[in-house]
Sequence to fold (446 residues):
Amino acid sequence: MVHKCKGKYHIIVFGCQMSEHDSEVIAGQLEEMGYLHTAEQSEADIILLVTCCVRETAENKVWGLLGRLRKLKQNKPDLVIGVSGCLPQQKDMGKNIKQRFPHVDLIFGTHNIHELPRLINQLKESQETVLEIWSQADTVKEGVPVRRAPGIKAWVTIMYGCNNFCTYCIVPYVRGRERSRKPEDIILEIEELVQQGYKDITLLGQNVNSYGKDFTKPFDFADLLLRLNQIEGLERLRYTTSHPRDFTDKLIDVVAQCDRVCENFHLPVQAGSNRILKKMNRGYSREEYLELINKIRDRVPKASITTDIMVGFPGETDEDFEDTMDIVRQVKYDSAFTFVYNIRKGTPAAKMPDQVPENIKTERIQKLIALQNEISLANNQALVGEIEEVLVEGPTKNNDNKIGGRSRTNKLVIFTGGNNLTGKIVPVKIKAGHLTHLEGDYYDGR
Ligand code: SAH
Ligand code: SF4
Fold:
């Protein structure tokens, strides 16, 4: 039931799709309480930050914004400012935020998002900063309202947390251990989304191919895809992120055989050197990774393959870095998220010797980006003449009679057409490949 309007809320998100989706859950609860969304910070009665701490840059952005919000609060003392997400979930960070930014009213973490209405009520009653962070999640909570952006794409969480403990990564410390949602809850949510008109669903988890490892009755990620593939009216099914170590032959076969599951494999490699992969605790060697890529290309020849790569992990030598460049040349990724390693307090890599100097990290990342850009462009150019099925998302921002959407391989495709095609799947013949997108014409079969 929606109550009388209590005021307006504004949410600012940092970080990955998981944070984006958390913001949808936060928005859903605020709307249920009677708050309305505003795109204007200055109009808001509640401003909530959904934060990220996976890299230092993400963290610094939050500090900068909190500093700027102090002014706004001075002019509008009733404004509620809240900080949630991964950042406060770090050890002692909640207290730290409370001390450094006394104008913050509400601090909570990743495990108690569903408690937001109670926390807001508590704040209204006590008028004192509410700081509540759970060190771990209780059970998986179902039935929490979600406010999704209207459109054709939606995210659905299938599991929470991560058990992998890659030595550089803070995620397992702030998102807790792996917890899978029950298949029936996921199926129901997606069926409802399809009825509402969503067509392209991305399943979310830190390591989706660990799905179901916590069930007593065997039901794994491949089984889930097989089941979801039967949902009538669902056009496309995607998932992120999958861990190369857990990508089984069964899963490759299921992706190959399920018509709704898209041919895009996001397989973070992180590094190309066996020595570094071992120090990262990734659980695969470069040879095993390359074998996996070969198997995927064999079974799904049109697959696009994307990745996350990091440079400057502690102890990374010129030779190790060359191994990374080499694996990038061999795999020929369609695109890559590239990162400079940075220290995350509390992770094992933070204490490793031989941290790489910043100037060398910068040099390496520039070389890596230049190489990847060359490959991305060449891959896109090689698609000239191909027909891509494009699920149209709407007009481009340039106001040039062009519309855009995604291919099954998740490439952005721009072509001439009217807004009436939004939400439809349209064949497009590619006439040019650019670094970040493809350009084409509606294909009428001739
Ligand atoms: N669960 C996903 C994504 C985790 S975070 C996975 O395993 O792939 C997203 C990316 O951030 C990682 O893939 C990694 O490349 C990068 N990352 C994580 N910790 C980092 C750190 N300390 N420094 C730099 N990049 C990091
Ligand atoms: Fe972090 Fe590794 Fe888990 Fe990904 S798999 S979230 S990189 S610990």
